[in-house]
Recover the amino acids of this structure.
């Protein structure tokens, strides 16, 4: 039932977006003096239609949006055809659908900012800094608090993630607070932030009686390789382990006992919450800021009820719409 509800909801939302898109074409064409022959809800075959004035409003069998049929989209012989209009008018009519979707996005974002909402806020702390990285050279240390990113306050990890993605491959400023006060450093967020940082995967907990415990793996150990494959993220380790469930697997680790190889067999059906190896890993280094691992919990975390007055919500909604377009381009 839940799958059916999800599918129906998706179709309704998709149809609504397409109808709004087509309304942009419809109203712009009418305003420009272009004759609209049909406004269709859904796609043919047609179920039935009602004519109002010179426009046929039809309901069609395939519920995936709609369409606007205009007179003479390629034939300029009729003065009310689309093809007879000037290039600026045709461009406006054709682009009006996308413009309507953009206006809708601005309106929805503005509404989100205006409606009261609960936001988890606190102080985002650096848990670990990888040696030899640019952030380590800049003086960022474990325990530092992230205050700002490109002049914007950082209240939680989502704020940092959004701004880092928005600034991919561009110089950005990061303001941090540590034991010696606040400092501003320059970073360049990138998708391949940690591709060359060894020891990124660190064990936080080892469950008693698990394959990892029996092999001697300890909290604080880092996993450098699995079956000869370099491991740079938790996902890398999961991929190798998943491919070798029930098979002997060799891990190259580094810890208080130095660098060593251990052999274990990942469990096919482990106890709930333990995983195939029986370990809990620390969070990955940040995916966009090389060499920083953030704490999984905010300091002084609390819930704030936030909303903006409409005169502030509208410009914020317009700005967020633009930033979303930038993110799509960068992705």
């Amino acid at each position: 039932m839940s799958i059916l509800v999800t599918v129906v909801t998706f179709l309704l939302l998709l149809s609504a977006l397409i109808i709004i898109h087509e309304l942009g074409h419809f109203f712009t064409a009418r305003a420009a003096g272009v004759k609209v022959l049909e406004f269709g809800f859904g796609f043919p075959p047609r179920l039935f239609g009602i004519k109002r004035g010179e426009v046929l409003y039809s309901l069609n069998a395939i519920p995936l949006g709609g369409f606007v049929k205009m007179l003479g989209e390629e034939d300029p012989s009729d003065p009310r055809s689309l093809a007879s209009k000037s290039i600026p008018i045709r461009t406006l009519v054709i682009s009006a659908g996308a413009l309507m979707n953009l206006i809708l996005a601005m309106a929805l974002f503005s509404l989100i900012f205006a409606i009261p909402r609960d936001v988890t806020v606190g102080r985002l702390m650096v848990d670990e800094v990888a040696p030899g990285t640019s952030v380590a050279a800049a003086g960022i240390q474990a325990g530092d608090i992230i205050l700002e990113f490109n002049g914007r306050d950082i209240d939680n990890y989502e704020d940092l993630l959004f701004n880092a993605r928005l600034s991919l491959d561009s110089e950005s400023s990061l303001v941090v607070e540590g034991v010696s006060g606040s400092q501003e450093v320059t970073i360049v967020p990138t998708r391949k932030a940690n591709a060359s940082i060894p020891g990124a995967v660190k064990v936080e907990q080892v469950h008693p009686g698990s394959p990892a415990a029996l092999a001697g793996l300890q909290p604080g150990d880092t996993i450098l390789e699995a079956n000869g494959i370099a491991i740079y993220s938790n996902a890398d380790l999961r991929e190798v382990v998943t491919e070798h469930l029930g098979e002997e697997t060799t891990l190259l680790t580094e810890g208080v006992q130095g660098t060593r190889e251990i052999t274990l067999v990942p469990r096919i059906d482990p106890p709930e919450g333990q995983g195939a190896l029986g370990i809990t890993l620390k969070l990955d280094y940040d995916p966009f800021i090389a060499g920083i691992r953030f704490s999984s919990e905010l300091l002084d975390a609390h819930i704030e009820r936030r909303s903006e007055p409409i005169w502030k919500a509208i410009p914020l909604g317009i700005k967020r719409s633009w930033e979303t377009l930038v993110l799509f381009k960068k992705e």
Remarks:
- Residues 41 and 59 are 5 Å apart (CA to CA).
